[in-house]
Specification:
This protein is α/β, with parallel strands linked by helices. Helix content is about 40%, strand content about 25%. The structure holds flavin mononucleotide.
């Protein structure tokens, strides 16, 4: 399987990168081909999403580069910290630029049709708040649903797992404990 890991964290010494490393070694052990896009450090940095016509966003060299990687992948794996109730803005910006009309979806008789059919998606994220809080308030379900319905399904892909690990700001023992649960 050809995997594309997209990681969004400003620091490589972060739990997001520890998860990325674990996923990467499990994938390599399994014999998968793995590509990693490190959004903060990739040389193909995209500015904030702008357009004259949202229905005809010009192809940039950076979007071409990222879209080629997306096209080749059987599975996309997103790894990011949960910030302000959602994903970091650098990842949202990546999606706004790259999951564009004509590449990730199109309209047929005014109905959206996903074009990334056949690809599966996995998500790994962590919250500072303990899981129990976000389970009770429904915040965990909200981010999963938004990701699944508005991004993954909209583009014709399939969400095969969505992992939210809570209480990441607590202690290093908790970090090890959570890391042990991370599996591809
Ligand atoms: C800008 C910012 C916003 C955050 N927003 C939330 C939040 O909405 N809910 C929450 O539980 N934790 C929040 N946190 C805590 C992070 O989720 C936590 O630090 C992170 O999951 C730890 O993993 P990391 O080592 O990969 O950063 C926020 C942290 C930052 C820096």
């Amino acid at each position: 399987m050809n995997l594309l890991i997209i990681v969004a964290h400003p620091k490589t010494e972060s739990f997001s990168f520890a998860m990325t490393q674990k996923i990467l070694s499990q994938a390599e052990e399994r014999g998968d081909t793995v590509n990693v896009i490190d959004l903060y450090r990739d040389e193909n940095q995209l500015p904030f999403f702008v357009f004259d016509d949202a229905n005809d966003v010009p192809i940039r060299k950076e979007t071409k580069y990222f879209q080629e990687k997306i096209s080749k992948a059987d599975q996309l794996i997103f790894v990011f910290p949960y910030w302000w109730g959602g994903m970091p803005s650098i990842l949202k910006n990546f999606i706004e630029w790259n999951f564009s009309k004509g590449f990730a979806f199109k309209y047929v008789n005014s109905k959206p049709k996903g074009l990334l059919v056949g690809k599966s998606v996995k998500v790994y994220t962590t919250t500072g708040a303990p899981s129990i809080i976000y389970k009770i308030t429904g915040a965990n379900r909200r981010i999963r649903k938004t990701f699944q319905q508005q991004i993954v399904n909209f583009c014709g892909m399939k969400l095969t797992s969505f992992n939210i690990y809570g209480g990441m700001d607590k202690s290093s023992t908790n970090t090890e404990f959570i890391l042990n649960k991370v599996t591809l």
